[in-house]
Design a protein that fits this description.
Distance between the termini: 91 Å
Shape: elongated
Oligomer: single chain
Structural class: mainly beta
Largest sheet: 28 strands, mixed
Helix content: 10-25%
Length: about 525
């Protein structure tokens, strides 16, 4: 039933009642909808008539909004019946499936009887779905015209990614989170300002703008963080990771290729601290761009262990299996500041230089590494190593005695180099050498990045006469996240030394994991590289 105002009154609808109504609402990705009275491409349309009283109980509503990525099917009730002449607020309630999940929502607006084209129309809203709750308040510049509105909202829940089921925006998995922002929408432009997100120990804030005027969404963002811990992001943080198995060191969080192809973007990111595993990055700065399905992160810079890190990533997501090209350079990294077990001095000290240049395929860091081709190189031009560690690889009583007495005696490192060649996700050592004053340590083996398992062996060659020397290599096994060290036991004497290895299990594994080649500038290192290469 539609009741129009009496002759001589302002234009509008005095009363609108709908019983057993069915509404099918459709909007395409360009913003054209079947509920619009004018073409949105031609600018704002005329003022819509104001409904002074509305009654619509249990209407069946189907919404397919390609622009906002929202699909809803359920019942919606709207009511603002006035009682005894008192003006009542407009109340709209919905229940159904929103983006495939059960959801409820409630909107409370100003009384329709007081609505006017001369002033904004105010409302509050609340939505609930999949453990997330979204609440806020806002205003329409003109009643019933959603081309221009402003809102302030808050959200909280168990996993940030679940906000997709309320908003249609694809986000990342997290643990319990809180989010707040202001949104200003004008035609084809939406701007999120004062955006603040927190989850676990991590925080992020900034400004995000989205423009759809070209028919292809363009995102422009400026985001910063005081502290970002990668362990707070991903399926494992949300409690949705694998229930069994050893945790991977390299993230398996998936990036959707279709999301990269959907629109273009420019994102500037700054963080004071970023924690990745046991490594802390400081003063991180990065610029990311998406241009028709190609993601580029360059430049990316950070301070790490008093050294400098520079990186560049290009990810071509125009196909279902993205192709990645990754380059990384580290200069002046202080090995002595690496976390190590036990008190006292670190097992290895010195300035590390490193470079990684690989290509691979996949939608996650782990997938790209598991298919990697290229080189991983580094060099330790000079430094110091605990004599007990250097001697231990030669397996003699002097080295073992140093371990037993927990001697802090150090040996100079003349040079440490290594060179790994990556092929289909397997790193094979081309050169792995640590030249100390008492012992020359040489290694070989492989690291399988698909399983993150290590299969390496190192052997010490003393530079002076040693009594009771055992010619048994030290085996480096385990995984990247949990390396282990053992001795290849060939007799009872070798078995005896295995207990001593436990004292240096973690430090030696850490030391070996950070030795590489290809960046040597020191004359001794260059000569060592040449000699070990010719021997092989």
């Amino acid at each position: 039933m539609i009741q129009l105002p009496a002759f001589g009154h302002s234009f509008g609808i005095e009363r609108l009642e709908m019983q057993n109504a069915t509404l099918r609402l459709v909007r395409d990705s360009t913003g054209h909808a079947n509920w619009q009275s004018t073409d949105p491409d031609k600018g704002p349309g005329p003022n819509l008539p104001i409904v002074r009283s509305l009654s619509m109980p249990n209407a069946y509503v189907v919404l397919d909004d390609a622009l906002r990525h929202l699909q809803f099917e359920g019942t919606v009730s709207a009511q603002n019946a006035n009682a005894a002449g008192a003006l009542q607020p407009l109340r709209i309630e919905g229940l159904g499936q929103l983006n495939g999940r059960a959801a409820t929502f409630e909107i409370i607006g100003d009384p329709l009887g007081t609505a006017s084209h001369e002033r904004p129309y105010r409302f509050t809203f609340a939505e609930r779905s999949s453990g997330s709750r979204l609440t806020g308040r806002g205003l329409l510049s003109r009643p019933f015209n959603f081309d221009a509105f402003d809102t302030r909202f808050d959200a909280a829940g168990a996993d940030l990614k679940d906000l997709y089921f309320l908003t249609g925006v694809t986000l990342v998995n997290t643990g319990p989170y809180r989010l707040s922002s202001s949104l200003t929408h004008r035609g084809t432009n939406s701007k999120f300002s004062d955006l603040v997100v927190s989850s676990g120990q991590s925080d992020m804030r900034g400004t995000v703008s989205i423009d759809t005027s070209s028919g292809r969404p363009k995102l422009d963002a400026d985001v910063n963080s005081q502290f970002l811990r990668m362990a707070d992001v991903g399926a494992r943080a949300a409690g949705r990771g694998p229930a069994v198995g050893t945790p991977l060191l390299l993230s398996n969080a998936m990036l959707s290729p279709s999301l990269v192809r959907h629109g273009d973007a420019v994102v500037n990111f700054h963080a004071r601290h970023v924690e990745i595993g046991g490594v802390s990055l400081h003063m991180v700065a990065a610029k990311a761009t998406i241009d028709h399905g190609v993601l580029t992160i360059a430049p990316l810079s950070a301070d790490v262990l008093e050294g400098k890190l520079f990186a560049k990533l290009k990810l071509d997501a125009r196909t279902e299996v993205p192709a990645a090209d990754f380059n990384l350079k580290i200069t002046g990294l202080q090995l002595g500041q690496l976390v190590h077990k036990g008190p006292g001095q670190p097992p290895v000290e010195g300035l590390l230089q490193a470079r990684v240049a690989i290509t691979g395929q996949g939608s996650s860091v782990h997938q790209v590494a598991a298919s990697a081709n290229g080189t991983v190189t580094a060099v330790l031009p000079h430094g110091a190593i605990r004599a007990s560690l250097a001697e231990l690889t030669g397996i003699d009583l002097r080295g073992l005695g140093l371990l037993i007495t927990k001697s802090k005696q150090e040996a100079n490192v003349r040079c440490g180099v290594a060179s790994f060649k990556a092929h289909d996700g397997t790193l094979t050592a081309q050169s792995l050498v640590l030249d100390t004053d008492p012992v020359l340590i040489i290694g070989n083996g492989q690291i399988h990045l698909d399983t993150e398992t290590i299969d390496m062996a190192v052997r010490g060659h003393p530079k002076s006469l040693r009594l009771f020397r055992l010619r048994s290599p030290v085996l480096v096994r385990g995984t990247l996240s949990h390396p282990s060290i053992d001795i290849q036991a060939r007799n009872s004497a070798a078995q005896t030394t295995k207990a001593a290895l436990d004292l240096v299990l973690s430090p030696l594994a850490e030391a070996l994991g950070f030795v590489d080649s290809g960046l040597a500038k020191d004359a001794d290192c260059a000569a060592l590289l040449h000699s070990t290469g010719s021997e092989r």
